[in-house]
Amino acid sequence: MKALVKDRAEPGLALTDVPEPEIGPGDVLIKVLRTGICGTDLHIRSWDGWARQAVRTPLVLGHEFVGEVVDTGRDVTDIRPGDRVSGEGHLVCGKCRNCLAGRRHLCRATVGLGVGRDGAFAEYVALPASNVWVHRAPVDLDVAAIFDPFGNAVHTALAFPLVGEDVLITGAGPIGLMAAAVARHAGARHVVITDVSEERLDLARKVGVSLALNVSGATIADGQRELGLREGFDVGLEMSGHRDALRDMVANMTHGGRIAMLGLPTEEFPVDWARIVTSMITLKGIYGREMFETWYAMSVLLEGGLDLTPVITGRYGFRDFEAAFDDAASGHGGKVILDWTA
User: Fold this and answer.
1) In this protein, which residues make up the domain named Enoyl reductase (ER) (predicted)?
2) What CATH fold (topology level) applies to the domain 152-285?
3) pLDDT tens digits, residue range 311-320?
């Protein structure tokens, strides 16, 4: 089968033939229809410091996908050939304290699909049945392909109650944009998102934010004044991993404010802990999705009318992967989709 492979310990990717994956008694074989390009995939393509430490070549990339089940192992009873599915990209041990307690998203032995084992940028992918999410209601294929990052957005946005709250989101990348759509849909009063890319801020306006603020020319305090906020933001969603973004967020939170952090910093940086203590601000780190409570919430949100299509800005056949990756790496658009049927 055709697959997109990190075949050498150097920058670049190769579209090449690899063996079709085999399945065990508890596994599912899936014909891939669409995939989404993630920041993780961009790191592996560029072969940066993180990728050099995390990845062993050769490796089939990819963890965001939708496909159709073509075969199941003998022990799989609730998934059938023909089912349309996405996959949870964190494979857990099932034996540690958190796994046994039902907190699988906190497993210390997590292996990432497309990072620690061959992934979904291929014509077929195999997964344990316990990692497969069946789409019981109709869903657009492009949207189903990005359920993994959509789950990151939902997990972050719903970390704290949102009804009637004023929400600040720093970083208008694809996940920040999806989180903004979720916050608005979930009943936030005002949703403010910040970035330095006017293209991405335009996408934020399409998903219905109250204010899309370019912080290269304005401050978050300016945004507060424009919206008439007197005491700061109630909930912060930090999606950028940028030190200045977190500092500005902390400085603009109300007393007792709550911050969920998904953005992953590339280095350590100082934080105004005195402000966090004296303002009684809560910080909560977010990684991945809750299995499978977040997935249930994602499906229900879509059934309830949440529209993610404005977040998807690039669509390519898998043979045009170079152009697709360049588009995703540009930092100006939203999610980029690869079509594996083209």
Assistant:
1) 12-338
2) Rossmann fold (3.40.50)
3) 999 999 999 9
